[in-house]
Amino acid sequence: MTDRLTLAATLTGPDRPGITAALMGAIAGLGTEVLDLEQVLVRGQVTIAVLLGSLPEDLDTLEDRLAGTCARLGYRLSIDEGVGDNPPRARRVVVSLLGRPLRATHLAEAGRVIAEHGGTIDRIRRLSRTPMTTLEFIVSGTDVDRLRPALAATAAETGFDVSVSPAGLSRQGRRLVVMDVDSTLIQDEVIELLAAHAGREAEVAAVTGAAMRGELDFAASLHHRVAALAGLPESILADVRAAVRLTPGARTLVATLRDLGFAVGVVSGGFLEVVAPLAAELGITHVHANSLEVADGVLTGRVAGPVVDRAAKAETLRRFAAAEGLPLSRTVAIGDGANDLDMLAAAGLGIAFNAKPAVRASADTALSLPHLDAVLYLLGFSREEVEDAAAARAASVG
Ligand SMILES: [Mg+2]
Fold it and tell me: What is the predicted pLDDT for the residue at 2?
């Protein structure tokens, strides 16, 4: 079958209704088989590529009918006679490129790295135009483990974001998304908001910064910072809960993941007293964080129970995945700090979100624009799909 004569026809022209009907109608009745058909539409210009098999003896009639239809419609036509179907697309990976703006320079560099690693770009589609441009490439002939670090390094140097994932079934179906909280789900570091009430914000912020850059042991630094809160009335927790600002796109991300039936969790080196109500409001079911010890209505300056540190965050991801019956290959972890690194490494896809340089350098994927809903584009959903889902939610509430 594969060595049979086939004909690849490519048509380009202004989009209008009924093109496919006109094209296929012209050759209907010749017994021709459609082996492949793809179409792209960019700013009103449509390109249709069709691969035809079971060709008639009289190829001229087929080609004349195609040419006549294209002439009538004002389309350019190119015809290539050849043999067989498309070659099989093996070792496929998905490469997502994000930029604001995404420039030709970025694509030149990405394309060069993909080619240097043996990759062929089979298909490209745009997933978003705002707030950033996202293009998704389906690439064959290369491996995630080789391509990912090379593209990540080029992206960091050239100034765009990139994600490389296996194209298999793990991209389809249900997944678990686990987020860090401070400076990921929310814009703030809760310990700093708490410390402001004790008049020690600057001191605590300096320690937090060093810990998130990986310069300090997390647990020791947490004990040190929480000690600064000793004697504060428990009531400040409500003030801090009210002051927390969600990261742009956080609500959209969580609501869309819930619409998809995905599992969502948060794990935080911050505090359950602030994280749990926030998670409940967003409908996030899996929650794990530290607890502040309270006695007689005041914070004691101690953490209650074991500290949620770097290792505990990765362990929590595994625990949430097990509870959902999902393998780690179907998990996505998102975080910004050094204490997120083990969790990002353990997940099927680890995303460094507006991360400290050491974290960005170690993660699979980095997002440098402050929009959490861009994670949806990395998972393969388009802005149109996300907006349609938001409109459907609004309609069901209204
Ligand atoms: Mg964080």
Answer: 45
Instruction: Write out residues in the chain with pLDDT < 70, as ranges.
Output: 1-3
Token pair 């035809």: residue: 52
What is the pLDDT, as a whole number, of residue 93?
96
User: What residues pack around ion ligand 1 (CB closer than 5 A)?
Assistant: 180, 182-183, 336-337
CA of 190 to the centre of ligand 1 (A): 10
Q: Give CA–CA dist 231/228, Å, rounded.
A: 9
Give residue 344 CA to ligand 1 midpoint distance, Å: 12
**Which active-site residues does the annotation give?**
180, 182
Q: Ligand 1 centroid vs 287 CA: distance in angstroms?
A: 15
